[in-house]
From TrEMBL, chain A:
SMART domains: NADH-G_4Fe-4S_3
PANTHER family: NADH-UBIQUINONE OXIDOREDUCTASE 75 KDA SUBUNIT, MITOCHONDRIAL, RESPIRATORY NITRATE REDUCTASE
GO-annotated molecular function: 2 iron, 2 sulfur cluster binding; 4 iron, 4 sulfur cluster binding; metal ion binding; oxidoreductase activity
UniProt main location, coarse: membrane
InterPro entries associated with the record: 2Fe-2S_ferredoxin-like_sf (IPR036010), 2Fe-2S_ferredoxin-type (IPR001041), NADH_UbQ_OxRdtase_ferredoxin (IPR054351), NADH_UbQ_OxRdtase_Gsu_4Fe4S-bd (IPR019574), Prok_molybdopt-oxidoreductase (IPR050123)
Keyword Manganese included in the entry's annotation: no
Domain 4Fe-4S His(Cys)3-ligated-type: 96-135
Protein name, UniProt field: NADH-quinone oxidoreductase subunit G
Organism superkingdom: Bacteria
Keywords for this protein: 2Fe-2S, 4Fe-4S, Iron, Iron-sulfur, Membrane, Metal-binding, NAD, Translocase
UniProt domain 2Fe-2S ferredoxin-type: residue ranges: 8-95
UniProtKB/TrEMBL annotation, chain B:
Recorded catalytic activity of this chain's protein: a quinone + NADH + 5 H(+)(in) = a quinol + NAD(+) + 4 H(+)(out)
Source lineage: Bacteria, Pseudomonadati, Bacteroidota, Chitinophagia, Chitinophagales
The UniProt record lists the keyword Flavoprotein: yes
Entry similarity comment: Belongs to the complex I 51 kDa subunit family.
Superkingdom of source: Bacteria
Example of a GO MF term: quinone binding
Record InterPro entries: NADH-UbQ_OxRdtase_51kDa_CS, NADH-UbQ_OxRdtase_suF, Nuo51_FMN-bd, Nuo51_FMN-bd_sf, Nuop51_4Fe4S-bd, Nuop51_4Fe4S-bd_sf
Segment forming the signal sequence: none
Protein name: NADH-quinone oxidoreductase subunit F
Coiled coil: none
Domain NADH-ubiquinone oxidoreductase 51kDa subunit iron-sulphur binding intervals: 340-385
Gene source species: Lacibacter cauensis
């Protein structure tokens, strides 16, 4: 029995979960899933040392551990704080956290161009999701926004520094995934920017992964730029024999055309592990060169697990996030002012049952079937 | 007249050099420590002295030393933080410039206590001439056998290296300093792990202010208990205060921590009163990042007691009616100073110096600066004052390092105590451009609240 690892019990928003020692609060919350998971803009579980910078994942620690049940005076970054046995964490149940998070989102947005209508990342942008949940309808910022010139990073990657939130993920990716890092953060404060010091292009085999890790539209794929909106494309899992990487990718298709190739992502928007259990980073050849359907062996439609707009139009295999509200509220169901299902025709239908375009005809048929 | 421990000999001719310093009794503490004391005994002595960190936070130095992890086979490091960049603070420069051997002597004692064989002085890049003075002093100490291998035959090796920074305020934060010392971009690290466990090159490290390390010398020489007799309560010993602003005698003063703020400002021994016969309006007693206090709260606490130059008394009343000792950058403002403009200047500084790593500080400091400029230019509105308050509240405590707090506190305190002046700027924009709000009621005696039963 001595070999069995002792598990730490940690309570996050009234839900207790057992995790291994050394797990961060964020990862413990991800084990629970759903609403109690703090958002993370800069933390990336596959990248060492990432996290702690964006401050969106701040949580309140109401009790440090069983041994020392004192609360922590400040809000802590859940992505970098490890759990202790008997720790009690408040995320969505804490007003302080909600308040601070709203503040952080407002700060992130004051210099963001909000050009979602022309941004390639729209639809799969973490900042969009975050501001949808925590942002305000209007900004209190009334000054000129900070802007940068577009920086050319070579034939494949476009840097749009104005959109950047300085999460440092691409810096860590270049350090840890690709062979060499040619870009970094220059200057400091609100004029800090991701750049190459003297105009150089980013080209080595795995550098394309910076596009996948970028939570916003600062680093985009030049081969896909302005080709299509992501929610009009159809994600399918595919693989190929690649000598550089695992070759397990996600194709974003429209008709028979492969518009974009990315790594497969999990429900937190991070690169999934491959079937061999390694992080599924893909090489530049797979990402930028193999744009023909004959290059790939298609496995089938991808599971779209986020409740994002990408899932629109292809509901097959959509994974719903864990519903935690009742547990957070101690077993009570939330009191609804109005149940939308009472008045809506659309919502009486289980969306995942719709295979194909969701027309009113389909809705009527399914409703009858109910 | 209070006792001087650090600057007593600072004005002896030639004290900058080893021969004179040695003749005046220098390096006695190194001899005492290496020949008669164990490292633990030195730490114990510093603990007994009650010495509190002189860099700003006021954390007990002996305690900090005892937290240092001591794993086998891993080197430990002592780093002296000479990156003194806080506006209004220039005490360390004075000490290093005039009596550099005191710092080196303290460093040898501290290195022995902590078991550090390579100690570093991380000095602000703008102090390039001080760096040269220190390097000469280190070389002199090395020639005299106080640095290098087997110092004084004790078997203890120690060497000191002087490393200049590249001109960033943020590198005064201990983890950013360590990053910079390692040759990386000076971004603060995310704590934990603390430097005492994982610091310079992943090894246990103690980062101390110049003055704290210099104070080890008198502590060793006279004994911790003797040192603790100076000062009041938990504020033991002497403190260097760099006084500046609208006073008759700006400069660096060594005070024993048992005098009142009023005495410090008005007595001829220290600041010599407000310049040009003006009246005191406000004061920042600990360097730019501590809260500003109006005259009435500065001289007397909210309870009606005389405010003393001690850690406890200055922070009496919390941030609502108190401030902090900070690093001892004593900035005095007379009735002709404009608090709005002053706060704007500070906000501009913090915006420029924010490292840009975490979002509240990176975006918030710039936002505050813009709003303050707008109010100062007479284009502000009342809601801007509330917005400022809200922004500072959302920066404070939510950042990686204390720079966010340091940027938020001056704004918060200015609005808390000088809201009248901000409002006057909003309601009288054209007048605010040509004259200052003046003393107003900021020096009026406080109403002492009746004790509640």
């Amino acid at each position: 029995m001595s070999e069995q690892k002792q598990l730490f019990k940690v309570t996050i928003d009234n839900i207790t979960v057992e995790v291994e020692p050394g797990t961060t609060i964020l990862n413990a919350a991800r084990k629970i899933g759903g609403d109690v998971t703090p958002p993370a803009m800069c933390y990336y579980s596959k990248l060492k040392d990432s996290g702690g910078k964006c401050r969106t994942c701040l949580v309140e620690v109401a009790a440090g551990s069983t041994a020392d049940p004192r609360p922590m005076p400040k809000l802590v970054a859940s992505c970098r704080t490890t759990v202790m046995d008997g720790m009690v964490v408040k995320n969505i149940t804490s007003d302080r956290v909600t308040d601070a998070r709203n503040g952080v989102v407002e700060f992130l947005l004051i210099n963001h161009p909000l050009d979602c209508p022309i941004c390639d990342q729209a639809g799969e942008c973490h900042l969009q999701d975050l501001s949808y949940e925590h942002g305000k309808g209007a900004s209190r910022y009334e000054f000129k926004r900070r802007t940068f010139d577009k920086h050319d990073l070579g034939p494949y990657i476009q840097l749009h520094m104005t959109r950047c939130i300085l999460c440092y993920r691409c810096v860590y990716t270049a350090d840890q995934v690709s062979k060499e890092r040619r870009h970094g953060v220059l200057s400091r404060g609100d004029h800090a920017e991701i750049a190459t010091y003297i105009e150089k292009s980013l080209d080595n085999d795995f550098i394309g992964n910076v596009i996948d890790v970028c939570p916003v539209g600062a680093l985009t794929d030049k081969t896909f730029r302005f080709k299509n909106r992501v929610w009009f494309t159809k994600p399918v899992d595919a693989h190929c024999n690649c000598d550089k990487c695992s070759g397990e990718v996600q194709l974003w298709m429209r008709g028979d055309e492969v518009l974009r190739v990315t790594a497969r992502k999990d429900e937190w928007g991070e690169v999934k592990d491959t079937t061999k259990g390694e992080p599924g980073w893909i090489c530049n050849t797979c990402r930028f060169e193999r744009k023909k359907i004959s290059d790939w062996v298609i496995e089938g439609p991808s599971q779209v697990s986020r409740h994002s707009v990408i899932s629109q139009g292809h509901y097959v295999g959509m994974k719903k996030p864990n519903e935690t509200v009742a547990k957070v509220m101690g077993g009570r169901d939330p009191k609804l002012l109005m149940n939308i299902k009472d008045v809506s025709e659309v919502n009486q239908v289980e969306l995942s049952e719709i295979k194909g375009p969701a027309t009113s005809q389909v809705f009527k048929q399914l409703k009858k079937g109910n | 007249m209070g006792r001087k421990l650090l600057l007593e000999k600072a004005h002896v001719e030639g004290i900058r050099h080893y021969d004179v310093y040695r003749r005046e009794g220098g390096y006695r503490s190194v001899e005492k420590v290496l020949k008669t004391m164990s490292p633990e005994a030195v730490v114990e002595e510093v603990k007994k002295s009650g010495l509190r960190g002189r860099g700003g936070a006021g954390f007990p130095t002996g305690m900090k030393w005892s937290f240092l992890a001591k794993p086998e086979g891993v080197p430990r490091y002592l780093v002296v933080n000479a990156d003194e960049s806080e506006p209004g603070t220039f005490k360390d420069r004075y000490l290093m410039e005039f009596i550099p051997h005191l710092l080196i002597e303290g460093m040898i004692c501290a290195s022995y206590a902590l078991g550090s064989n390579r100690s570093y002085i991380y000095i602000r890049g703008e102090y390039w001439w001080v760096k040269e003075i220190l390097e000469v002093a280190v070389q002199e100490a090395r020639n005299a056998g106080f640095l290098g291998k087997n110092i004084l035959g004790s078997g203890f090796d120690c060497d000191i290296f002087v490393q200049p920074g590249a001109g960033a305020y943020i590198c005064g934060e201990e983890t950013a300093l360590i990053e910079s010392l390692e040759g990386k971009r000076g971004n603060p690290r995310i704590k934990p792990p603390f430097p005492a466990v994982k610091g310079l090159w992943g090894c246990p490290t103690v980062v101390n202010n110049v003055e704290s390390i210099a104070a080890v010398v008198p502590i060793v020489n006279e004994g911790g208990e003797e040192y603790a007799k100076l000062g009041t309560g938990k504020s033991t010993g002497t403190k260097l205060i760099s006084a500046c602003g609208n006073i008759n005698k700006p400069g660096v003063y060594e005070i024993e921590m048992n005098i009142s703020v009023e005495e410090f400002i008005y007595s001829d021994e220290y600041c010599g009163g407000i310049a040009n016969g003006k009246k005191l309006k406000a004061c920042i007693p600990g360097g730019s990042s501590v809260p500003i206090l109006p005259a009435n709260l500065l001289l007397k606490t909210a309870k009606g007691e005389t405010r003393m130059m001690t850690y406890e008394s200055l922070s009496d009343g919390g941030f609502a009616t108190g401030t902090m000792m900070g690093s001892g950058g004593f900035i005095v403002m007379d009735e002709d100073q404009c608090v709005v403009k002053h706060t704007y200047t500070l906000a501009r500084f913090y915006r420029h110096e924010s490292c840009g790593q975490c979002s509240p500080c990176r975006e918030g400091t710039g936002w505050m600066e813009k709003i303050l400029l707008k109010i100062d230019q007479g284009k502000g509105s009342m809601s801007d004052i509330d917005l400022l308050w809200d922004i500072q509240r959302k920066i404070e405590g939510n950042t990686i390092c204390p720079l966010g707090d340091a940027a938020a506190w001056p704004v918060a305190a200015a609005i808390r105590h000088f809201r009248d002046e901000f409002e006057w700027h909003v309601t009288n924009p054209s007048e605010a451009l040509v004259r200052n709000y003046g003393l107003a009621n900021y020096a009026k005696p406080l109403e002492i609240a009746a004790p509640t039963a």
